[in-house]
TrEMBL record, chains A, B:
This is Rrf2 family transcriptional regulator. It comes from the Bacteria. SUPFAM superfamilies: Winged helix' DNA-binding domain. InterPro entries: Tscrpt_reg_Rrf2, WH-like_DNA-bd_sf, WH_DNA-bd_sf. Pfam families: Rrf2.
Length: 133, 133
DNA sequence: CAATCAAAGACTTTATTTGCCCATGATAAC
DNA sequence: GTTATCATGGGCAAATAAAGTCTTTGATTG
């Protein structure tokens, strides 16, 4: 029960892209260096973000990644789901019907966390961070 | 990022012990059968609960497990922490100081979930379940 | 066409979880 | 006291998941 490193990398990447000059293309190498992770591994994570429609990529020389138009609305939860999937944190094999109280409690607990993360937009965090500089 | 099966087993066991006649000793075999898990594995989980002070065990013939005196106060969160540990769900290698906004958001999110789970006592859930019978 | 860069698939390594086996120790019944 | 029962503990094996590597392909720039 831990967030994966992949999620960590995705959050940092998104935040970095949100702070950098808009529409500027950033290569995977530069992103990987900052986070001390191998470019090939980070590449896979970035591809997930592309498929989730959060960033777009440009191949070829001077290519790289940048945020998509709707990026202001992207939340922490969006990023986490893009990497970790949408499955529930709690699952049981013997499914005794939908009115199981244990499941209800566990699912509700997860939703408490998700409700908060859904309201944390990277755009707002980026604003706060640039204000500090 | 998922709750382990061990946590699942622990929750079910605690709830079962809360529904059963008080002070009655239940052996690991009976607990394991209900949950379709091997007794040997469940045994290790139960030992964790014993060490966490939530249940007590009696060796020898007719031995088994039962809840401890303060069991009415035990919450879902207590059980989860007993099994999964107390470490934060989000951790980064490069620790850039305690005022990192990413960490703050992730830790706060986790606390939202924990706040809810802390208020879900197994005693109250047991009450509701016996009311249904 | 040559250099650069993302995408994708196959693969290896590492870590964690889950589960089993067996020896040990405690307790009750006989 | 001997035997049956039951928890505890260590070590080990299998299964699963996470993390990371390598290599090929294909797109774009210049
Ligand atoms: S009691 Fe609820 S959580 Fe447990 S196995 Fe049945 S449905 Fe799943
Ligand atoms: S920015 Fe925050 S979360 Fe990221 S590595 Fe630094 S301290 Fe950790």
């Amino acid at each position: 029960m831990k967030f994966s490193k992949a999620t960590n990398y995705a959050l940092h990447t998104m935040l970095f892209l949100a702070v950098v000059p808009p529409n500027k293309l950033i290569g995977v190498q530069q992103l990987a260096e900052r986070q001390e992770v191998s470019p090939t591994y980070l590449s896979k994570i970035l591809t997930k973000l592309v498929k989730a429609g959060m960033i777009e990529s440009t191949s070829g020389a001077n290519g790289g990644y940048r945020l998509k138009r709707n990026w202001e609305e992207i939340s922490f939860l969006d990023i986490i789901h893009a990497i970790e999937g949408n499955a529930s944190l709690f699952e049981c094999d013997l499914n005794h019907g939908q009115d199981c109280m244990i499941q209800k409690i566990m699912v509700t607990a997860e939703e408490k966390m998700e409700d908060y993360l859904r309201n944390q937009k990277i755009s707002e965090l980026a604003k706060k961070m640039t204000a500090v500089l």
